[in-house]
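## tool: complex_structure
## caller: assistant
## args:
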Amino acid sequence: MRFNHVAKRHGGSEVLRGVSLDVQPGELFGLVGVNGAGKTTLLRCLLDFCAADSGDITLFGIDSRNSRARAPLAFLPERFEPPPFLTGAEFLAYVLQLQGQRYDAQRAAAIVAALDLEHAALARRVRGYSKGMTQKLGLAAALISDKQLAILDEPCSGLDPKAHVLFKRLLQDMRERGRTVLLTSHALADVDALCDRLAILHGGQLQFVGTPDECRTRFGAATLEDAFMTCVQ
Ligand SMILES: Nc1ncnc2c1ncn2[C@@H]1O[C@H](COP(=O)(O)OP(=O)(O)OP(=O)(O)O)[C@@H](O)[C@H]1O
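## result:
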């Protein structure tokens, strides 16, 4: 995955000012930044939900605006809002159908168990789900088809501590199986523990790209939190 001098304005402000970044196959990569830094905007450009003003993005060597480039990709949006009238199972079946795959009850049971979403919830309408249950369903929908690349915008948002731990195990398992993950997170402890590399987006530009250790060294900090604070001051 390659971002090449990506620029994007919203209204009068330059949200992205020439962002260049390579994410390697098999990497678990964390994109961090303060609220409004432009993380979601960068992902939206990658997914062709909005057009970059300049620059280009490639996925698997293909321009990301080409739907073929996005076929091996799963995405969890920052605000996941499934149709409330569907049951959890119907939603997973719908997502799989969009990808030309059939709903497999065993596979659905396995992924919801891995995220600690109670199995009975699959038969219930999504409108009755709590915030955390909805997030678990979003993660299940993103991960059920085991795509080569997962783009996850704040995946831990709303997860209870148990689901959080289980989700981190799922991510580690994905890495062991060679999957590539690009996630945004405000939880720097997660990024430190899980991510091979991270990028700090600030002022419309990447202020740092490297491993958590390199980040601490670069900013002369003992913790990733302190390094981040120094970076975004
Ligand atoms: N559709 C839009 N129209 C106008 N401005 C927008 C739009 N989308 C994003 N912005 C602005 O672009 C900036 C970056 O927003 P973005 O959602 O990308 O930040 P973020 O880093 O994901 O923030 P957060 O951590 O709060 O989710 C913000 O100032 C936001 O108000």
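## assistant note: The mean pLDDT is 96. The chain has two domains: 1-72+148-233, 80-147. Handing back to user.
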